[in-house]
Amino acid sequence: MRVTRVVVLPAAPVLLPEHAGLTDPVPDLRTAARTALAPLAGHAVGLLAEPRWGERVGRHLLADAGVSAPGTGTWREADVVVVVGDGSARRGEKAPGHLDPRAHGWDERVEHALAHGDPATLAALDVQEGDELLAAGAGVLRELGTAVVAAGREVARADLSYAADPFGVRYWVASWDLGPDVS
Amino acid sequence: MTLRLGRHTFADDRPLMMAIVNRTPDSFYDQGATWAEERAFERVHEVVEQGAEIVDIGGIKAAPGVEIDAAEEKDRVVSFVARVREAYPDVVISVDTWRAEVGEAVCAVGADLLNDAWGGHDPALAEVAARHDVALVCTHVGGVAPRTRPHRVDYDDVVADAIGHTVGEAERAVALGVARESVVIDPAHDFGKATRHSLEVTRRLDEMVATGWPVLVSLSNKDFVGETLDLPVGERLTGTLAATAVCAWHGARIYRVHQVAETRQVVDMVRSILGDRPPARAVRGLA
After folding, report:
1. pLDDT for the residue A73
2. pTM for the complete prediction?
3. A3: distance to nearest CA of chain B, Å?
């Protein structure tokens, strides 16, 4: 595995220009995504996107940040993997999926792992519970954790630059720099 | 299509709000509420705050009544136009008059648009617009004289008549030297029309829009709304806004109104339904 950096982004269609209103409802999120993606220009970028919206949103955010279109390969061919997926959409009574009392605990676990570079916690995510919580990122975040653990790579630097739920869905922008492949 | 109203240019197709400002003691809707100059000036301030791009200043009510000669009309509007010009350099100033003499005087102090609400009764008004390079609204009143009520009016086809007259006046204005991008046409609801005529003009406004000339509609609280719904002057806003929605759907460009904020909401809503304007905010279903 030659990946040296991982960036995590939300799969929220509210980020897509074809759905835009006159004002951007998520300017801080958009800025955080741009800032996280801008350094990727010139690298071989792989996209690991949750199946419903992830690829469309990921490709748009990459293009918006001036990063050329990602290839199809991820862990084997890419220098950088962009993971597109987010937290629970059941974080309150006004959330898209209403309130599930487990949602906050689930998101805190993921968020802590992203902030502290803890791939083992992500590798242990219960994808079925994630589906129940409408956490679109459950599968891809678990795959991220599994791949990093399997490669025997450490997270040399973890940065969670955005974490909020403006509309009842938990969004994260996170970057990990992976240490050398010692396998 | 670019629209130029005097010193102001509007490059896109965004609809414009023209707020009515009466310098009259007896106009039908406000009954002299802004007859005092200070009240009229406050009205200008209020509508500019509400986002009106144009103020339409008038010194004579449309209905029959005490005769107001040109000198009196000028007394009512000229110094007021000058005052608004100085205080609001970014607003388009329109003056509702049929008299060339009055048009000349208001253009000299900064008017941008002459709203010839009586259908070209004074042919020299278009010459004034040309001389001052201001815009002109060409209206259809079925050939009646200023300040007369329609009486036993009849048309083979009121829309064809309105298009024929307004486009003819528009071409005449251009031939006299008014800039082509500064001519607007208005079917003039109620003017020279029975209620059914105004309803038909509304229903078929797309035919006027299809001429390519920007179309102004003046619907606000008028008798065709009142008769249609059997409501007095103070209770016609809902009906006015329904007519506004239809005109917006058909592509009207300028709305001459008493209620700026309400009209803007309706027009914005219709434009968004048409797909011409994004929603102000789009989050529902997309988080």
Report:
1. 66
2. 0.91
3. 30
